[in-house]
Write a structure and sequence with these properties.
The chain is mainly β. It folds into three domains: 91 residues, Sandwich (Immunoglobulin-like); 271 residues, Tachylectin-2, Chain A; 78 residues, Immunoglobulins (Immunoglobulin-like, Sandwich). The chain has no helices and 38 strands. Strands 25, 32, 34, 35, 37 and 38 form a six-stranded mixed sheet that branches. Strands 11, 12, 13, 14 and 15 form a five-stranded antiparallel sheet that branches. A four-stranded antiparallel sheet has the order 2-24-23-22, with no helix packed on it. The protein is elongated.
Length: 485
């Protein structure tokens, strides 16, 4: 409530005045869903060969490749297939990489090796390789199976190799990923009892031994093929699937274990996923950058990504506009013994009587406020005893118009039409919905799929001023999403 008081008899009363200025509205009125990621081809990919399954390690990146031993000699299996092996690419600086070094072991020359993961001790490694090494494995007609092997990394050598206890000559285990606490090992397998071509499984470390593999269930696995699991330190599980509803043949999804069950998998957007095969996604601890494999070029290659979403550490709390004022005839106290009536006209068709009155306007605008004074003894009326122009404006701020509470799956509209930033030539309205989705435009629609309290941020930026400084402001609003009955 704002006080409007007169300060002198027969003079215009004092008004708190704000200049009314309409905000500049972006030409982009429909909510546009921009990409959350920027991707780039890694420089160490080799032409004509495949690089896949990146893993972030302390010194750089470990990956698999079927490139040649040398310029003229391929590494091939007994049936003529080029073999994959594990390589380490160390970073020279933030932009350049050293030439990849092969991680050598006793299995390099005859068997596929990789993908790979490293335990929290930065020494113990788990990797995929073929399990049969006897005479039968040397037959071109022999169908070898993949298993998981455990070793120690010593420099660029894998030593003290031994097989994972659940390897089998009847089915495959592959693509291990270990949790950041070393307690859970995830992998893909086509062992009996699965839901599709291959499923994701997990073993738990108990008293130094791995428990029996547990199928992650239909919340994650489908009638298609799920593989390349990556368990992030945050608890998110990324994986690859060829299930229906994707963008390409193989697509990358993520899920999380919430309230005792796995959430419905979420398809990562373009350009991480594409119309090609996209797989083996990994990310750093902040989820702001990472790597994945794709055959969107001429062969399987490794790409890096940078998470381009903007999220402010804090935003201003949005203030609700109030158009309510208190009008006071200050000099009435000095002549309180005389019988006067004070009639106010607020300029919007409404009137009130009293020494002090309150009035709320429905909207911003320019209003002529008048005060008539009536002498109750003589009935003499002093018309327009006081008069002034009141300019009612919005608070200078970015503004989010949206409901406070909605149901899961309910489509809502959000807009920034009430934004009032005088003098700003706004060039972008940027929405961060608090669930790792964003939109651009002064109006957008949104559907929240999970219950919770979401802090929605609206970041408004303007064209640089003459000095080149960028003008930007941010407000936030909490939206409670509840389960629909």
């Amino acid at each position: 409530m704002q006080d409007i008081s007169s300060f002198m008899v027969k003079r215009v009363f004092f008004l708190i005045v704000f200049v009314l200025t309409a905000p500049f509205v972006s030409a982009q009125t429909d909510g546009n869903k921009p990409s959350l990621y920027k991707v780039e081809l890694m420089s160490f990919n080799s032409a004509g060969f495949s690089e896949i399954s990146p893993v972030i390690v302390k010194d750089g990146l470990v990956f698999c490749s079927d490139k040649r031993f040398s310029i003229i000699r391929d590494r091939t299996s007994f049936d003529g297939r080029r073999l994959y092996n594990i390589y380490l690419a160390e970073m020279k600086d933030s932009l350049e990489w050293e030439n990849p070094k092969e991680l050598k072991s006793e299995r390099n020359s005859l068997f596929n090796n990789g993908p790979f993961c490293m335990a929290p001790d930065n020494k113990t490694v788990y990797f995929t390789s073929e399990i049969e090494t006897g005479p039968a494995a040397k037959s071109k007609k022999f169908r070898n199976h993949s298993g998981i092997f455990i070793a120690e990394l010593s420099g660029t050598n894998l030593v003290s190799l031994h097989p994972f206890k659940y390897n089998s000559t009847e089915y495959d285990l592959a693509q291990p990923s270990i949790s950041s606490d070393g307690k859970y090992l995830y992998f893909a397998s086509n062992m009996p009892g699965g839901l599709g071509g291959s499923d994701l499984f997990c073993c738990e470390s108990k008293d130094g031994e791995w428990s029996q593999p547990v199928n992650l269930g239909p919340g994650i696995n489908s009638s298609g093929t799920e593989n390349f699991p990556f368990i992030h330190p945050s608890g998110r599980l990324y994986f690859t699937s060829n299930r229906s509803g994707g963008i390409g043949s193989l697509d990358i999804y993520f899920t999380a274990f919430t309230n005792g069950k796995w959430d419905d998998p979420v398809l990562l957007p373009e350009p991480v996923n594409s119309s090609s095969d996209d797989f083996s996604f990994v990310a750093d601890g902040s989820l702001q950058k990472g790597y994945f494999s794709s055959n969107r070029g001429k062969s399987d290659d490794i790409y890096n990504f940078v998470y381009s979403i903007i999220r402010k550490a804090s935003c201003d709390n949005m203030a609700e506009n109030s158009y309510c004022y208190r009008f006071v005839e200050e000099n009435s106290a000095k002549i309180d013994t005389l019988p006067f009536r004070y009639d106010w006209s607020f300029g919007d068709g409404n009137k009130a009587s009293g020494k002090m009155v309150e009035h709320c306007y429905e909207s911003p605008g320019t209003y002529i406020v008048q005060l008539d004074v009536v002498n109750l003894i003589t009935q003499e009326v002093s018309y327009n005893e006081k008069s002034d122009t009141l300019i009612v404006t919005k608070i200078e701020q970015a503004f989010i118009s949206a409901p406070d509470t909605i149901g899961t799956g309910q489509r809502i509209m959000l807009n920034a039409d009430e934004t009032n930033l005088p003098g700003w030539k706004i060039n972008q309205y940027y929405w961060n919905f608090g669930d790792e989705t964003i939109a651009i435009g002064n109006r957008t629609d949104k559907t929240f799929l999970k219950p919770g309290l979401y802090n929605v941020q609206l970041i408004v930026s303007a064209e640089p001023e003459s000095g080149g400084a960028l003008k930007e402001t941010c407000v936030s609003k909490n939206i409670l999403v509840v389960n629909e009955p």
